[in-house]
Amino acid sequence: MMKVNGLREDNYFWVTFFSFLIYFAFTLTIVLGFGFYLFKYKVFVQTGFGIFTLVLFAWGLVQIAMAFFFSMIMADSNFSGILGYAGTFYLIGAALINNTLIYVPPGNIPLIYHFSPLITFQRCLQYIVLACQKGHCYNSFKQVPSQDSEFALCIYLLYIQAIVIAGCAWYVNQIAPQSSYGGGKKWNFLCSRTRKRAVPNSMQYNFDEIGDLEDARESNNLPVYDYDVALEDQDSKDERNFIYNLDKADYYKYPLIIKDLRKVFPLPDGLSEKVVIRNLTLKLKKGEILGLLGSNGAGKTTLLSILTGLVEPTKGNAWVAGFDIKNQTGAVQ
């Protein structure tokens, strides 16, 4: 909804990211303040402030990235909360067992364990605590002995994990709708080829949306005629025939083209459904003004929601200035 109203998706995520970062920095300041100045724990006082900050900042980035990722794959906040707590307790237990009983530093932990950021973070803390127990806290990276080289590796891995998880969150957000509104791109959209056409705005088109290359998709997306076609007026028939015979490479010449658009909503009982839009087909020429008239429930709002990417069509497609509402939603919006 916010995207349709003009909010760019990248701006939204950056604002959210910095908001989370500010919250984390505030929490981190409290933790370090209590550890350094109030309780004056040895592990805080004698360990270099830069090392602590570097490790905890990396962990903060990982937490923010995981928050984005899990918000993309889980719509139910209650379930995600339960899974988050259960997973955290399990991983903390696994990390403690591995760090204190099986792979005690300076022995290196198998790389596969680092697929869990929580285990990697606890490994960093384990090295810091053990160093202070031995009487030589890490005051700087120069004081980290060579046999503890895994400590630096764990810090690098935390930053890498943050980048990878954030990238996965971005990818999932592109291909999977996060609510009942909006639709995702194709799973292989990163590999889709594009080409520029000689059009006034130098717009780009996907090969799948030009010419006869869309025929394969349309063969599996045939319109459903659940009404008496003989009762259709001649103007509607002429409009449909014109669009059927129009070369898809010329779609950019029209501000709007709708082809066999259909939307069906399931009813709450789960057994029946409501047909809101039945095979709508029309075109809008440059300079024309389009108005939608109809009673409540005729499908006016649903049509606009489909064209702006808030709702996915059940069948059919539409093009706004040549951009496909299914696979080029960002350009349409």
Explain this structure.
The protein has 333 residues and is α+β, with helices and mostly antiparallel strands. The protein has two domains: 9-175, no CATH class; 212-332, Rossmann fold, CATH 3.40.50. Helices cover 47% and strands 11% of the residues. It has ten helices and six strands; from the N terminus they run ααααααββααββαββα. Strands 4-3-5-6 form a four-stranded antiparallel β-sheet. The chain is elongated, with a radius of gyration of 28 Å.
What is the mean predicted local confidence, pLDDT? 79
Q: What strand order characterises the main sheet?
A: 4-3-5-6
- Helices and strands: which structural class? alpha+beta
Helix content: 40-55%
Count of DSSP-assigned helices? 10
Number of individual domains: 2
Based on DSSP secondary structure assignment, what is the total number of beta strands?
Answer: 6
Domain ABC transporter: 278-327
Protein name: ABC transporter domain-containing protein
GO molecular function: ABC-type transporter activity; ATP binding; ATP hydrolysis activity; lipid transporter activity
Transmembrane segments: 12-37, 49-70, 82-105, 151-172
